[in-house]
Design brief:
By secondary structure, the chain is of the alpha/beta class. It has 3 domains: about 5-280, Alpha-Beta Barrel (TIM Barrel), CATH 3.20.20; about 285-400, Conserved carboxylase domain (Cyclin A, domain 1); about 410-445, no CATH class. About 50% of the residues lie in helices and about 10% in strands. The protein has 21 helices and 8 strands. It has helices spanning about 10-15, 25, 30-35, 50-55, 60-70, 95-105, 125-135, 150-165, 180-195, 210-220, 240-250, 260-280, 290-295, 300-310, 320-330, 340-355, 365-370, 385-390, 410-415, 425-430, 435-445, and strands at about 5, 40-45, 75-80, 110-115, 135-145, 170-175, 200, 225. It has an 8-stranded parallel barrel with strand order 1-2-3-4-5-6-7-8, surrounded by 6 helices. Helix 7 links the parallel strand 4 and strand 5. Helix 6 (about 95-105) packs parallel to helix 7 (about 125-135) and helix 15 crosses helix 16 (about 340-355). The radius of gyration is 21 Å and the shape is globular. It binds cobalt (II) ion.
């Protein structure tokens, strides 16, 4: 039995615990050890890191990728891509998605984990196709959620659609850390039995299930698990790398990982953690376990957003009402998985319903766009009364929103003009217009 590890310290652990504020200089020194440790892959790019580089760190994300590539010639580099949203928050035209994938691979990425918040296959199609065309590894991800309409059958059906599309592996992406060891075991087994693809499991320690879930993932035959070096593990991050290696080795798994290097990596990041604790960018709460998400089926990050929103409006006494309203709104919307951007949208609508004192008296434009079908197909059916309130006589359309978009690259290139020195610069501008423009202006002096 063999099992392999994807180390997430540079991307998801960084994003979940360090507010994505790791600068290249913060980890440069440890890259040779990360390269030498024997990981299947290093998740090191994409997700929120791209935005954070430009917005907070005054770093060119593309240059970061090239530097990591140079320092880690022996390990596969992996990124997270939100399908048709690439790394931004809206749907982009196909030419942008294709070029983004092409440039990611050209600058050093080997594996692209591609997901859509609604598990709408149409929204990952172009990114998957282009990844395959660029001879990189397209990993199709299932957003895991729990609802009356989500079951093994739908997940397997989605995985098979991705297999037909030509992906090289399937990842189960449990962003809220709510997938139980049993649910994970059953799902991995079902995927192994019904597809011929390697299965990767990604979870979070938020509710305390994480390590047990990965143990059962291994038992069910998972090929790769995502873990984070121990000092930045658990809580809102991934389960600990060293602990899983230790445990699984005792069970007889073949694991080719250098434990001395893991210790070096952990010692190194302990110093980083101290620095972030001191400067306040690491909130100790994100390292703790909170099983409330199991009761509300609401991701930890969403709970803390709700608290912040209500406190800002001096309405924290309504917290329990909002918590009760949240699953009702999710049901009315056809049970979308609570991942960006759906988690924010559902949270805002639930808060409005409670604070206004009447359900759906106010409906944000993002929710209207979702109901119209602009984000993709809702997993379940929409509440017809809500549809009427939101759209009036208009009907939702079942279509791929990107089909309605004009190509965007040439237009963006003209707009940003000489500030962009490369196609990569133009793509940064397309993803985060104001932030990238400011970054490019300062960089060019
Ligand atoms: Co994650």
């Amino acid at each position: 039995m063999e099992i392999r590890f994807t180390e997430t310290v540079l991307r998801d652990a960084n994003q979940s615990q360090l507010a994505t504020r790791l600068a290249y200089e913060d980890f440069e020194e440890i890259l040779p050890a990360l390269d030498n440790a024997g990981f299947y892959s290093l998740e090191c790019w994409g997700g929120a890191t791209f935005d954070s580089c430009l917005r907070y760190l005054n770093e060119d994300p593309w240059e970061r990728l090239r530097k990591i590539r140079k320092a880690c010639p022996n390990t596969k580099l992996q990124m997270l891509l939100r399908g048709q949203n690439i790394l931004g928050y809206r749907h982009y035209p196909d030419d942008i998605v294709r070029l983004f994938v092409e440039k990611s691979v050209e600058n050093g990425i080997d594996i692209i984990r591609i997901f859509d918040a609604l598990n709408d296959i149409r929204n990952i199609k172009v990114a998957v196709e282009e990844t395959i065309k660029c001879k990189a590894h397209a990993q199709g991800a299932i957003c895991y959620t729990v609802s009356p309409i989500h079951n093994l059958e739908n997940y397997v059906a989605y995985a098979k659609q991705m297999e037909d599309m030509g992906v090289s592996s399937i990842a189960i992406k449990d962003m809220a850390g709510i997938m139980s060891p049993k649910e994970c075991y059953d799902l991995v087994k079902a995927l192994k039995e019904n597809t011929s693809l390697p299965v990767v499991v990604h979870t979070h320690g938020t509710t305390g299930l994480g390590s047990m879930t990965l143990l059962k993932a291994a038992e069910a035959g998972a090929d790769v698990i995502d873990t984070a070096i121990s000092c930045l593990s658990n809580g809102t991050s991934q389960p600990p790398t060293e602990t899983l290696v230790y445990t699984l080795k005792q069970f007889g798994y073949d694991i080719d990982i250098n434990m001395d290097e893991l210790k070096n990596i952990n010692d190194f990041f302990k110093n980083v953690r101290s620095k972030f604790l001191e400067n306040g960018q690491l909130n100790p709460l994100v390292m703790a376990t909170d099983a409330n998400a199991l009761i509300y089926q609401v991701p930890g990050g969403m709970l803390s957003n709700l608290v912040a929103q209500l406190k800002a409006q001096n309405a924290f006494d309504k917290f329990n009402q909002v918590l009760e309203e949240t699953p009702k709104v999710r049901e009315d919307l056809g049970y979308p998985p609570l991942v960006t951007p759906m988690s924010q949208m559902v949270g805002v609508q639930a808060t409005m319903n409670v604070l206004v004192g009447e359900r759906y008296k106010l409906i944000p434009k993002e929710i209207k766009a979702y109901i119209r079908g602009e984000y993709g197909k809702a997993p379940g059916s929409l509440n017809p009364e809500l549809v009427k309130k939101a759209l009036g006589e208009e009907q939702p359309i079942d279509y791929r929103f990107a089909d309605s978009l004009e190509p965007g690259f040439e237009k963006a290139k003209k707009e940003i003009g000489s500030l962009a020195k490369s196609d990569e610069d133009v793509l940064s501008y397309v993803a985060f217009p104001q932030v990238a423009e400011k970054f490019l202006r300062e960089r060019n002096g």
